[in-house]
Write a structure and sequence with these properties.
Blueprint: H1 2-53, H2 55-107, H3 109-149
Helix pairs in contact: 1-2, 2-3
Length: 159
């Protein structure tokens, strides 16, 4: 209960602080309301009569409003995810550049180049072994399909 009382006091003090700034805005809105009300009243009445005569139109309009709102929210979420993904990729890239610069600074250009060449050689060997292994699996699968399926077309797969 104390929290609500404190919140109410803060709200009242904020209102009294902002009153001089909000007075011109409220007077402008009030005069606009008094000028626009007589002009807009017949159109609003016609719209309400139309909505009363055909409630299906109101249902469709609400459905379209909810669909529009959902699309706006999903668009904002998509932009947020893309922004985070780009941030992560840029951070990883520039972090790698900084780490590479630190390694070169600490070990020297020649020793770093030798190490990178050795790592590339090991990576190429591992990739070659894995490529041969999976190529063997593919040949074995093709042989098994040839024996079981009785030919091309039966049980063939794009893998």
């Amino acid at each position: 209960m104390e929290v609500l009382q404190e919140l109410a006091l803060q709200t009242i003090s904020l209102y009294h602080f902002l009153t001089p700034y909000l007075t011109p805005l409220t007077s402008t809105l009030n005069s606009a309301y008094t000028h626009i009300y007589p002009i807009a009243l017949p159109y609003v009445n016609r719209l309400l009569i139309l909505a009363h005569d055909s409630p299906a139109l109101v249902s469709v309009a609400l459905l379209l409003l909810f669909l529009l709102l959902a699309m706006r929210i999903l668009g904002a979420v998509q932009r947020l995810v893309v922004w985070c993904f780009r941030l992560i990729l840029r951070t990883a890239f520039y972090g790698g550049v900084v780490v590479l610069g630190c390694v070169v600074w600490q070990r020297g250009v020649e020793r770093t180049a030798r190490d990178v060449g050795a790592w590339g050689k090991v990576l190429a060997e591992v990739w070659g072994r894995e490529y041969e292994r999976w190529e063997g699996y593919q040949k074995l699968q093709q042989q098994q399909q040839g024996q079981v399926g009785g030919g091309v077309g039966k049980g063939s797969s794009w893998r």
